[in-house]
Amino acid sequence: MSDLKGDLSEAVAAAFAAAGLPADLGRVTASDRPDLADFQCNGALPAAKRAGLNPRDVAAGVAGRLAGDARLTSVEVAGPGFINLKVSDAALAARAAEVAADPRAGAQGVSRPRRIIIDYGGPNVAKPMHVGHLRSSIIGESLKRIYRFRGDTVTGDAHFGDWGYQMGLLIGAVCDEDAAIAGLVETLNAGGDPDGALPAAFEQVSLADLDRLYPLAAAQGNQDTAYRDRARKLTADLQARRAGCYLLWRRFRAVTQVALQRDFHALGVDFDLWNGESDADALIEPMVADLAAKGLLEDDQGARIVRVARESDKKKLPPLLVVSSEGSAMYGTTDLATVLDRKQTLAPDHVIYCVDQRQADHFEVVFRAAYLAGYAVEGSLEHAGFGTMNGADGKPFKTREGGVLKLNDLIEMTRAKAAERLREAGLGAELDPAAFDDTAHKVAIAALKFADLQNFRGTSYVFDLDRFSSFEGKTGPYLLYQAVRVKSLLRKAAEAGDKAGAIAIGEPAERDLALTLDAFDQAVAEAYDKKAPNAVAEHAYRLAQAFSKFYAACPILAAPTPAAKASRLALATAALKQLELALGLLGIETPERM
Ligand code: ARG
Predict the structure, then answer these.
(1) Residue of 519 and 408 predicted with greater confidence
(2) pTM for this one?
(3) In the chain, what are the domain boundaries?
């Protein structure tokens, strides 16, 4: 099944071809002037230019060939040579009926499904998450759902940051605080079993300890060389799987992961894989040997690097630091080894890294090294970067105290705001406390996610909870409210025994709703191609608005005839299904009531 726009494009392309013009110029888009037309084709202008003809004449020739098309009620040439198309009520009704009958609400899948990995979230052991992780989680989750919806096999991997310098910092800090642990680490480092059971003293280390110690250790490491050197040494010990460091690190990893999974889950973000940087560790040694054998590795003052700069580069790219002078694996090393690991385990056709735009150079370096070494097909690794979520000061968002915002605190804060907004709007009064909390939670998540996803990912935006959580305007809560309104209407209809029936289109608001329903496939395809969930967000908003106008202009339960009532109920049902699907692709769930 294809959409009306696609079908009309085919018809117009055929008319172009029949007139001896390039068929690919016969493409149709939604009209810029909905008051004049439903669709338009601008291809007569370039076609005329190429053929050295008058564009209005060319347009008139094409229009003439379309005149007999039963789906069109008018074909007109406008302005310098635009072709304006108006679609018949019957064609719109037929298309709306298809959308209504389709579990995918009119959206097609890809013709050749691929195996995709989406690397997103990227939280770190003990280091609190910042807004970059929030955006990565929200955008990555949406991309995962959009790709899956289009038919690809998608694996979402959190790529847990668990193997770098911050691990050494933390091991040192915990040892400084607890002499018993320090003693155990030393003894075990001398010959314990890294795969053995955790000593009871290690089991005592809590997430609260790590949260408290990490910022102090990070600050000290910044100003104290000896402290920093020790942390580097401990990182190297960890990576060498010396049992004291390794077992303590296993505890850090476990407590962090449990808390993170809980927070992500509350946000409606769930990963298929929680692989960490450390999971690629076993591949690093053979990889280094392989890079050396391929002649890609160079010594550079005790470190080992791969040069990736190219003559044609406008900007100078640093080399990939594979082994540091202390012998440690670096951020880029684990990323390169992860490319290899994924190739061996999942054999992806394409990998999308949904990570802060500020890491663009890092990924360019890693990707080039991977292509040089033959670990991935050129072009199969892609960085889908994004801008920052800023505070009112225009800098990346911080808490009022100037600290990093914790995901859990953000969700709590947003939930409290959502509850306040619901009460203000006089909503949720008839819900029991548990249902009210559930609704407030869904409103909160919708507020956060929609505020993020309505912008193209590359754009930075300002965090403004008051605006995000409003029930008016282009917000998540507005969309949920519209969806809930349709649900309640459909419940009432069901109670009264009213059923949906054949769709007939007549009123302008019905036409507009049907045209909007038709545009879903294109929105999803665009979001997919450009890794841009904002196309789906925009569609959801337009659909909610089209529904709202339809609801105001066309009485449903009080429709003039039983047939009109049945038709409008079918339209409302289709609109709800499509709206919930679109919101689902954004990772937003709708409550039943509010
Ligand atoms: N943990 C990293 C950070 O906090 C993000 C990881 C992104 N993914 C990757 N494959 N490097 O910045």
Answers:
(1) 519
(2) 0.95
(3) 4-87, 165-267, 407-585
